[in-house]
Amino acid sequence: MHTLSYRQRRSELQTYFDRTASETWARLTSDAPVSGIRRTVRAGRDQMRATLLDWLPADLTGKRVLDAGCGTGALSFEAARRGANVVAVDLAETLVALADERTQKMHAELPPQHGYGSIQFHVGDMLDPALGRFDYAVAMDSLIHYRSSDMVAMLGRLSANVERGIIFTYAPRTPALTLMHAVGRFFPRQDRAPAIEPVDAGELRRHIAAEPALSTFREGHAFRVDSGFYVSSAIELVKA
């Protein structure tokens, strides 16, 4: 499935998050003061992350969870707090190093005998079969930069190593979101997000239904967040 467009976009994302915007992304995912634009993004991401975590079992003891595109590790840490053995992977070495530093610090602050699982951080491709098999895979805002066809093919690749469920987000194609993306080009460069591919929800679901690798999965929860300049939808695919 590694088409030229997929490889090109992956390379662009690695450059953006690892070099161009690593400091900006570190600030956005902390509690440091940020601009009004970024506050809406931070709030939206916090709401989305909490929702995706709610879709996972409250007790993940002994379960393997793939955090596909882990960023600075917030979702990985919360899953590990529930006892999961998390494999957290991202293209950006800078962000993975920050995620490791942050989660180690938060782990150290937990009370003894908490039942914390584990997190293994990796720099690389979320589709790498060498990462192993998982009970659950979560891809929060890591597929939104790919075209619908590439996104579904990536989900198909992930599904080969997932036993219970896949949770992912996408950018819904709406007039408001299209307008915000157009207006966003006039913002200072430091306030711009990397290229996002808005997706029609109906088209996405048709692609999913037609993907042979996803034939054993059914749609579970669905959710959407509208928070200023953060507009994102989520779908849960559950092993039938």
Describe the structure.
The two termini are 24 Å apart. The mean pLDDT is 90. The chain has helices at 4-20, 22-28, 36-55, 74-81, 93-108, 148-159, 175-184, 201-210; strands at residues 64-68, 85-90, 118-123, 134-139, 162-170, 217-227, 230-239. Helix 6 links the parallel strand 4 (134-139) and strand 5. It contains 8 helices and 7 strands. It is α/β, with parallel strands linked by helices. A 7-stranded mixed sheet has the order 3-2-1-4-5-7-6. Helix 4 packs parallel to helix 5 (93-108). It has one domain (4-239): Rossmann fold (3-Layer(aba) Sandwich), CATH 3.40.50.150.
Topology of helices and strands:
Elements: H1 4-20, H2 22-28, H3 36-55, E1 64-68, H4 74-81, E2 85-90, H5 93-108, E3 118-123, E4 134-139, H6 148-159, E5 162-170, H7 175-184, H8 201-210, E6 217-227, E7 230-239
Parallel strand pairs: 1-2, 1-4, 2-3, 4-5
Antiparallel strand pairs: 5-7, 6-7
In CATH terms, what is the architecture?
3-Layer(aba) Sandwich
Strand content: 15-25%
- Output the helix-strand order: HHHEHEHEEHEHHEE
What is the radius of gyration? 17 Å
- Tally the helices: what do you get? 8
State mean pLDDT (0 to 100 scale).
Answer: 90
Task: Assign the CATH superfamily.
Answer: Vaccinia Virus protein VP39
Major sheet: order of its strands?
3-2-1-4-5-7-6
**Terminal residue distance:** 24 Å
Q: Based on DSSP secondary structure assignment, what is the total number of beta strands?
A: 7
Helix proportion: 40-55%
In the CATH hierarchy, the third-tier topology is known as Rossmann fold
Counting helices, strands and paired strands, the structural category is alpha/beta
Largest sheet: 7 strands, mixed
Low-confidence stretches: none
CATH class category:
Alpha Beta
Shape: globular
Regarding quaternary structure, what we see is single chain
| The number of domains | 1
